[in-house]
Amino acid sequence: MTATSARPRQSHFRWTVCALLFFATTINYVDRQVLSILAKTLETKIGWDSIQYGYITAAFQAAYAIGLLMAGRLMDRLGTRKGYALAIAVWSLAAMAHAAAVSAFTFGIARATLGFGEAANFPACIKTVAEWFPKKERALATGIFNSGANIGAVVVPVSVPWLAEKYGWESAFVATGALGFVWLIFWLAIYRTPPEHPRVSTQELAIIQSDPPDRAGTYPWLPLFPKRATWAFAAGKGTN
């Protein structure tokens, strides 16, 4: 049976995909914040000082910046299904690897790997939204998955101290890192591009593909600098 003949009469499956992006972004922010919640505990357990902790934090930021330069090309080359799966597998393994770290140096390695993997989250989400939503719905879909960052910021202070106190600090890294592999099971089982997906109706596919083709071409960088929107965007990103 082909994907076309198996299509349902009606569907809204693109919002299921958006929900997957939301949960991935929530996990992304949960994984990156565990260390900051446990920093004081680990300062005693591992024995690092504030300077070494600064190096650990810098390792994440530097790797994240490098990862951003590569993530978009990775998604374009592998596609969102494989590319996003690879990214979340890398950052989830890195998150769990914090539990095996025994020094500031090994924490720095785990942290850098986490940052490198997590950098792919937003390029993957944006590309997925572009594949699954017409332009008139992309702002809403982007807002929904982006809200996962705030949910992650709420979940960590509630759950991580409890896990660390009851089962040890290592359990917090293992448990939160394992969430990514749970998500990965659903992603690989559910995700296909809209034309290939048997759960997308012909009507929904027409909505997804309703935008006219984009005009090919490039836009030079220099004319962007005098525009107010450029600096407004840069200022907003600089305050994140």
Compose a concise summary of this entry.
75% of the residues lie in helices and 0% in strands.
- The SSE order reads HHHHHHHHHH
Overall helicity: over 70%
Question: How large is the count of helical segments?
Answer: 10
Describe the sheet with the most strands.
Answer: none
The overall pLDDT, averaged over residues, is: 90
Rg for CA atoms? 20 Å
From the spread of the alpha carbons, the general shape counts as globular
Number of strands: 0
Alpha carbon gap, first and last residue: 48 Å
Class by helix and strand content? mainly alpha
Stretches where pLDDT is under 50 for at least 5 consecutive residues are: none
Proportion of beta-strand residues: under 5%
Describe this structure in words.
By secondary structure, the chain is an all-alpha fold. The chain has helices spanning 13-37, 39-45, 50-78, 80-97, 104-118, 121-132, 135-167, 169-190, 202-208, 228-238. Helix 4 runs antiparallel to helix 6. The relative contact order is 0.18. The mean pLDDT is 90.
